[in-house]
């Protein structure tokens, strides 16, 4: 943000199993409307601690004797490559104690109640998959039999629509399309034999989604409990140029080590994704609070328990942010999109300050040192001369204005530190979609460059 604009317009800051915590009935606070803003004027002290979270209640999907244990499922939560360990840390913090990293995701276990809570509260996962079958398969016919032997009637039937997706790593199967057809046939054959009808196929908005994963010798079948990808929080309509997905933006904040109580600036903010994710994290707003999930359309869904989980999560939302957040972009259209996105996310204008400004004119919001986390333009978005001049001049701004701050930049340009004449203390491989990138971390020192 340009210094003059900020001084005149800055706002006051307001496959293995995790054990479940002992079950207890959830608290039932006043329900909070999904469209109610989550950053309100300062009527309460910013440092007041949030109410302690209540333990999760035991699911009642099946009737069982008093004291009986809830059924526990093996689950897999995929995420963008590079965020696996950050996702594990997040799952541990949410109480999934034996979560551990896997290929482009994390394994954990939970009961059905825990599955719903993971969908509601994970900022980094792309979806939550429940493992329902696993077996050795040598050909497509054995894959068909594995699908036919799985009790799909527990979760869906002919009254729901179905979609099947198949992926593989080093599988000897010749055609993934044919494997996909075999899984679908096995599911439909079982349901027709048991219930007299088969579900219709809907590849756009199905009620039930099944994922098949094949490796060299086996197949694993998963029930998708999320539906649309979890990065679709429901608030972003304006994406801008070269957008980050919401869970990747949240992952960058986690990888950067940003403490959710220090100032944060994004000097190339685009449509505001990093800052909006930071605001929602700082306010403890669950990322899934305003969107639907696939598990709501499955058999036996306990809507009352789901409402209790959301009400309990709403009760932990803070009334205001304990830090200042600001974003700048040279494109007025990007700033308009960022403000619109923030409004749709339920944030009031004092939650995040957005300004049309050149990154080379930015300066801190106040005397507190904080973090800069950003996704700057790179590659084909800049010509060679513009690229050289921008980074030389921005580096001078960083040296002059941001001593004591940390800078974290995601880029596919592996020469980026050299262009800034700064030595990164961390280089974290991460993927933005299919694009291999690095998240470079720099400790900024006032008045000097470090090579």
TrEMBL record:
GO molecular function terms attached to this record: RNA binding; rRNA (guanine-N2-)-methyltransferase activity; rRNA (guanine-N7-)-methyltransferase activity
Coiled-coil segments: none
Entry keyword Thylakoid: no
Ranges for region Disordered: 1-66
Domain THUMP: 114-225
InterPro entries membership: RlmKL-like_Mtase, RlmKL-like_Mtase_CS, RlmL_1st, SAM-dependent_MTases_sf, THUMP_dom
Keyword Transferase assigned: yes
Residues that span the membrane, as ranges: none
UniProt keyword terms in alphabetical order: Methyltransferase, RNA-binding, Transferase
Stretches with biased composition (Basic and acidic residues): 32-46
CDD domains (alphabetical): THUMP_AdoMetMT
The protein's name: Putative N6-adenine-specific DNA methylase
Species this protein is from: Pigmentiphaga kullae
């Amino acid at each position: 943000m340009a210094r003059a604009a900020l001084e005149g317009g800055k706002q006051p800051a307001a496959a293995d199993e995790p054990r479940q915590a002992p079950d207890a009935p959830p608290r039932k606070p006043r329900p909070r409307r999904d469209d109610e803003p989550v950053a309100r004027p300062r009527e309460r002290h910013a440092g007041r601690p949030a109410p302690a979270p209540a333990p999760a209640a035991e699911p009642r999907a099946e009737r069982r004797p008093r004291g009986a244990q809830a059924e526990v499922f093996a689950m897999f939560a995929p995420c963008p490559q590079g965020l696996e360990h950050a996702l594990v840390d997040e799952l541990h913090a949410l109480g999934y104690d034996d979560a551990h990293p896997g290929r482009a995701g994390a394994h954990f276990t939970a009961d059905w109640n825990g599955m719903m809570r993971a969908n509601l509260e994970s900022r980094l996962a792309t979806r939550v998959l429940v493992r329902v079958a696993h077996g050795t398969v040598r050909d497509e016919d054995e894959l068909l039999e594995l699908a036919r032997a799985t009790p799909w009637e527990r979760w869906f039937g002919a009254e729901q629509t179905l979609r099947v997706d198949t992926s593989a790593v080093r599988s000897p199967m010749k055609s993934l399309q044919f494997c996909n057809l075999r899984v679908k046939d096995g599911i439909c054959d079982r349901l027709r034999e048991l219930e007299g009808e088969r579900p219709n196929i809907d590849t756009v908005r199905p009620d039930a989604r099944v994922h098949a994963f094949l490796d060299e010798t086996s197949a694993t079948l998963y029930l998708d409990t999320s539906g649309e990808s979890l990065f679709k929080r429901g608030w972003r309509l304006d994406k801008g140029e070269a957008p980050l997905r919401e869970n990747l933006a949240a992952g960058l904040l986690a990888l950067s080590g940003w403490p959710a109580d220090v100032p944060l600036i994004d000097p190339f903010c685009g449509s505001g994704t990093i800052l909006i994710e930071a605001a929602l994290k700082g306010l403890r707003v669950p990322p899934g609070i305003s969107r639907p999930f696939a598990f709501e359309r499955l058999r036996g869904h306990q809507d009352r328990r789901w409402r209790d989980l959301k009400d309990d999560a709403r009760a932990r939302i803070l009334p205001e942010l304990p830090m200042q957040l600001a974003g700048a972009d040279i494109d007025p259209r990007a700033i308009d999109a960022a403000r619109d996105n923030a409004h749709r996310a339920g944030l009031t204008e004092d939650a995040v300050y957005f300004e049309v400004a050149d990154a080379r004119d930015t300066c801190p919001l106040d005397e507190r040192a904080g973090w800069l986390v950003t996704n700057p333009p790179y590659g084909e978005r800049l010509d060679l001369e513009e690229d050289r001049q921008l980074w030389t001049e921005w580096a001078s701004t960083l040296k002059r204005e941001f001593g004591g701050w940390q800078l974290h930049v995601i880029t596919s340009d592996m020469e980026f530190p050299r262009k800034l004449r700064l030595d990164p203390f961390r280089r974290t491989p991460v993927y933005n979609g299919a694009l291999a990138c690095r998240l470079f971390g720099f400790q900024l020192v006032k008045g000097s460059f470090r090579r």
